[in-house]
Amino acid sequence: MCTSLTYENSRGDQFLARTMDFAFELGGQPIFMPRNQQIQGDAGTFTTKYGFVGAGRNLSHYIFVDGVNEYGLGAAALYFSQYAKYEATAPADKLGLAPHDVTAWALGNAKSVADLRELVKHIQLLDIPVALLGITAPLHFIFSDPTGETAVLEATSHDIHLIDDPVGVMANSPQLSWHLQNLSTYGTLQAADVPLHDYEGFELATQGPGTGALGLPGDYTSPSRFVRTVYNKHFSIKTDDTPTTLNLLQHLLDSVTIPKGVKLKADGHSDYTQYRAYANLTERSYFMEPYDNLELQGVKMTDEMLNDWDTPVEYPLDHQPHISALN
After folding, report:
1. Strand order in the sheet with 150-154
2. What's the domain range around 92?
3. Quick check: 145 and 92 in contact, CB under 8 A?
4. Which portions of this protein are annotated as coiled-coil regions (predicted)?
5. Residue 11 is part of a domain; what is its CATH number?
6. d(Cα 78, Cα 57) in Å, to the nearest integer?
7. Closest by alpha carbon to 171, among 234, 219, 126?
8. Which of 57, 111, 141, 159 has the highest local Cβ count within 10 Å?
9. Active-site annotation holds for 99
């Protein structure tokens, strides 16, 4: 139910990519949110200072689940079932936020991960449902910026702070600390082949190339997706520009993309990858790739958008599959 990763190409450009895996149709699309907005969130009103673009939807107000702002801070919200803990009320000296409003608040008010580390000391996540789902969304969040610094926000108690993410990958439950410890189980995997031993004089026949990755988990559970993404990210060949990096990120997300029907919930509905998103944190651009059209569709923030626009702008996605005829 969602996987995310950061990536730095050979010229130092930083990216944040994610899959959005869900059974309920979320209907997200790229939306540009201008500077200096007053947002009537579900826990109360909050203001923003910076412009940003990301995947969102206008319900009673604009709700965002990922995106990048004008300073290159990127964010993505992922499901954190059974582990997220929220408070009933916020102290008088803190801003109360519904979990589904955190992404918009962060992108609208923080210039960097370091900036956000200080800002989160002054918020409290509250147990307030999102109208679209009728439940309080159990979420945790990954943030990254053009310096490459990456951190995760997990509300597992009333104390809210950012946790360093040294591998730049996040999936779903359990906590990031558990996923990082679990990596040690797979610490001997490698891209190169491992020679086969002879047993008792019996010469083993090869199973073909790829023996270095024997044991790499291939299922759709959160721990397996986390390990698989770290492995593929680590061993992939570096890219050197935006188009080749976006192409590589598409391939990296291929290994955790969920087709319709292969991951069923108890009620019979299928979790599937509704879209994949890619934020270039260095160039402040954002791309979405819906399930039914694998062509990247992007929005790049311009000076005109940031300086002159004062109304949110929605960019409907093209859901028609594109096929290029060669004859």
Report:
1. 162-164, 150-154, 139-144, 74-79, 62-69, 52-58, 29-33, 313-314
2. 4-175+240-314
3. no
4. none
5. 3.60.60.10
6. 16
7. 219
8. 141
9. no
How buried is 167 (Cβ within 10 angstroms: 0-12 exposed, 13-18 middle, 19+ buried)?
A: middle
Categorize the per-residue pLDDT at 223 as very low, low, confident or very high, splitting at 50, 70 and 90: very high
Task: Please check whether residue 234 lies inside any domain of the structure.
Answer: no
From CA 75, how far away is CA 17, in angstroms rounded? 9
Quote the tokens at residue 189. Answer: 């995997």
Length of the chain: 327
Residue 68 resides in a domain: yes
pTM of this prediction? 0.96
- 99-128 exposure pattern, b = at least 16 Cβ within 10 A, e = fewer: bbbbbbbbbbbbbbbeebbeebeebbbbeb
109-136 per-position pLDDT tens digit: 999 999 999 999 999 999 999 887 889 9
* Residue 175: exposure state from Cβ atoms within 10 A (0-12, 13-18, ≥19): middle
Q: Which residues contact 109 (CB under 8 A, 6 or more apart)?
A: 48, 49, 50, 119
Helix locations, the chain, DSSP H: 102-109, 113-119, 176-182, 222-235, 242-254, 303-308
Residue 229 within any structural domain of the chain = no
State the CB neighbour count (10 A cutoff) for residue 289: 24
Please pick, among 1, 2, 139, 258, the residue that the annotation labels catalytic: 2
Give the integer Cα–Cα distance in Å for 36 and 228. 40
Residue 119 domain-assigned (yes or no) = yes
**Cα separations (Å) of 146 from 80, 138, 279, 286?**
26, 28, 11, 14
Hunting for tokens 């997200």 — which residue is that? 28
Q: What are phi and psi of 76, to 5 degrees?
A: -150, 135
CA 316 to chain centre: 20
| Euclidean distance between CA atoms 274 and 251, whole angstroms | 16
Stretch among 11-20, 48-57, 198-207, 312-321 having the lowest mean pLDDT:
198-207
Tell me which residue of 251, 235, 241, 231 sits closest to 10, measured CA to CA: 241
In order of 32, 37, 276, the CA distances from 67 in angstroms are 10, 16, 12
Q: Assess whether pLDDT exceeds 80 at residue 1.
A: no
